[in-house]
Amino acid sequence: MRIVFIGPPGAGKGTQAERIIAKYRLAHLSTGDMLRAARDAKTKIGIQAETYMAAGHLVPDDVIIGIVAERIEDADCHGGYLLDGFPRTIAQAEALDAMLNEIKTPLDVVLELRVPDEELYRRLSGRGRADDKPEVIRERLVAYYNQTSPLLDYYGKKGLVQVIEGLGTVDEIFERIETVLDK
Ligand code: AP5
Ligand code: MG
């Protein structure tokens, strides 16, 4: 199964991704995790990305597309994967389509995890990652609504989007996801 996971910052993508990849035996491709690892290892890409991440802005498309294009060809992705936090712009979605068309492996489903803003602030304020300061959360939300949410229409037109209500316990939300994926 090839899945794209879309949702605002703090919606619980990472939390649910852990369960989804365990049950459905998928590779977990989180561009946020990849960038944080690169930042901590002080690689060229990591140092470049740090400024954008700290401000709550998206890292430039060419950087991200390069990272994913390399990772998606790894052997562990052959059995399926969950893309968590990618694509986040129309340009990234088009680049992904081009990659997948070339190897004839289309996406199966796009999960939209829906959570209201007040709850996102509540969840992120209680976590304390470097980009979880209120003013940075605000910027991340602006980036989501301006640059990422248009993807719901992009994938909606292809008939791929399934909406998951993201309020409730982690177990309840996972059950909703299972209902969609088991179909
Ligand atoms: P990224 O790492 O993707 O961060 P994000 O989208 O802001 O999302 P988070 O990881 O904060 O939230 P999540 O939805 O995974 O929620 P989580 O499960 O952690 O991106 C970070 C940055 O990297 C971006 O700002 C950008 O700069 C850059 N970047 C990454 N990808 C990029 C791309 N494709 N293009 C350009 N730039 C890119 O949960 C959040 C909290 O809520 C946790 O504390 C959790 O325990 C709690 N929680 C989870 N579920 C529940 C629940 N049901 N009830 C109560 N609490 C819950
Ligand atoms: Mg995450």
In short:
The protein is α/β, with parallel strands linked by helices and 183 residues long. The chain has nine helices and five strands, in the order βαβαααβαβαααβα.
The strand count comes to 5
Percent in strands: 5-15%
Ends apart, CA distance between termini: 12 Å
- From the spread of the alpha carbons, the general shape counts as globular
**Elements, N to C (H/E):** EHEHHHEHEHHHEH
The main sheet comes to: 5 strands, parallel
Q: How many helices? A: 9
Overall pLDDT confidence: 97
Q: If you compute it from the alpha carbons, what radius of gyration comes out, rounded to the nearest whole angstrom?
A: 16 Å
Low-confidence stretches: none
What molecules are bound to this protein? BIS(adenosine)-5'-pentaphosphate, magnesium ion
Q: Supply the helix-strand structural class.
A: alpha/beta
